[in-house]
Amino acid sequence: MRFSTGFTAVLLASALAAVSGCHKASVPANTTAQNNVKQYHLRGVVIATDTAKGVVTVNTEAIPGFMPPMIMPYKLENPGVASGLHPGDTITAELDISKNSDLLDQIVIVKQAKLNSLPKIQYQPLVPGESVPDFRFLNQNNKIIHIDQFHGKVLLVTFIYTRCPLSNYCPRMSRNFADINKTLAAEPKLYAKTHLLSVSFDPSYDTPSVLRSYGGAYTGKYTQATFKHWDFSAPPEKELSRVLKFFLIGITPEKNHVLAHSLSTVVITPQGKIYKWYPTNTWTPQQLLADINTLLKDQTHS
Questions:
Q1: What CATH code would you report for 136-301?
Q2: Which single residue of 2, 15, 73, 227 has CA 20 to 30 Å from 34?
């Protein structure tokens, strides 16, 4: 097992380090006229910082009308601020939500960390070399597909749900996969040795017809999409918890069919083993394309 004894439903829902959430406000926030930005006051404890990317992961207190307590990464309006933050710092800030971005600004350290007494994270990440179970999914064509059928190819897997309301979460994962799919289509040799799989964790709503419509929009082919290289799917309800547990996806249902959730994107080798795991929304298509090239180059030389 990859999980410590501290792995519980609470950990899945709200205590995964460096994970993302997806929420929609149920009451109005402060709104500025420019770019229709909604602003929420945030308070929490810094878990980690990434100065290179200008991202800070915060154990965020509940924001009334917006989200429950949640550990998640935030991109900073001023990336240089990350260098002045430390794990354990208690901060307040303003979270600016717009159609195209979600940014943390006006950060104030209200209590500095005791750097020698920080708690350790109570979970272990997906391990490179670990075999991926032969999970089965129902795809956009109402057909059962499974992990093992993609052996021999580099398989990219990401998790989404079609009603996700924040552009930087599920839609960003789908836009990134669309960029990767387009790039690979221009290189027939790579295209033939790869496959993309988007998995919904909302199978009761994300039926094959819903996934087909959603997938058609992201492939850019709409009703003409063939889905030969990129499947959109969902596990059966009875298999959902097993899939979520393996791929470290935490889900908390909220009002109006909104799901607070973590993110997980995985690169799987042609042998069906974990190669890379990306647990946030900060990875780029270029990173996964580099993973593909490295894996296929290694296959050639082995």
A1: 3.40.30.10
A2: 73
